[in-house]
Amino acid sequence: MTQLATSPPAGALLRTWRQRRRLSQLDLSCQAGVSTRHLSFLETGRARPTREMLLRLAEELEIPLRARNELLLSAGFAPAYAERPLDDPAMAPVREALDLVLAGYEPHPAVVIDRTWHLVAANRSVALLLDGAAEWLLRPPVNVLRLSLHPEGMAPRIANLTQWRTHVLHRLGREAAGTGDPGLAALHRELAALPGGRGGSPADGIVVPLRIRHGDGELAFLSTVTTFGTAVDVTAAELSIEAFLPADRHTAAVLRALTDPSTGGAP
């Protein structure tokens, strides 16, 4: 009852998400197949939305599942999407899929993160990136962005730190603005205050590699992100797998050597 009493009306939430997506009422009404007048009445509270209308508009606005539930609750409807903890028996297929993907990426480092950038799982190769990080940054819950940019984390080993933190902060800032999540906005402010500089540009103008000092040289990685594209559970929808693939042959050779029994696990 407290949540319903303190949450904004459904119309106000719809207007906020529409503006967040930089759409006019005309744009959204055309996409959703409703009249601009009716959409205006929904946003101002002059008309009460149906459950089906809210879900249709949420789909057009690409509202995250968690926020869709909040939208439905604000209008007096039950949530449409379950939110099960990852250790729930019903989530066993998700856990198995995550384990298989993480193992499949080896010897390339890969992590599973949630919507707040906290570490959920990782494969064994991630240890290569964490060498020298302070123990307190590795205690759960581990925030992977804080770990990467903190002076006691990975930052001293990142050869292109200015470029990398510019990329990370830009990505995080877009997520905070696109979701309206105050936690992400607070994390962005925290990380932006750390030393390391801003404004670096990609060396090739296409992607930003992660360059890690390793021994007497460097390892270069390109990151890729995988998500559950058809998730209908809030927890599953908010998980993503970020893998770090070799950006050059030297890095690929080092990673292979780390898992080659003939080398004793050392490059």
TrEMBL record:
Residues 14-68 form the HTH cro/C1-type domain. InterPro entries: Cro/C1-type_HTH, Lambda_DNA-bd_dom_sf, MLTR_LBD. GO terms for molecular function: DNA binding. It comes from the Bacteria. This is Helix-turn-helix transcriptional regulator. The lineage of its organism: Bacteria, Bacillati, Actinomycetota, Actinomycetes, Geodermatophilales.
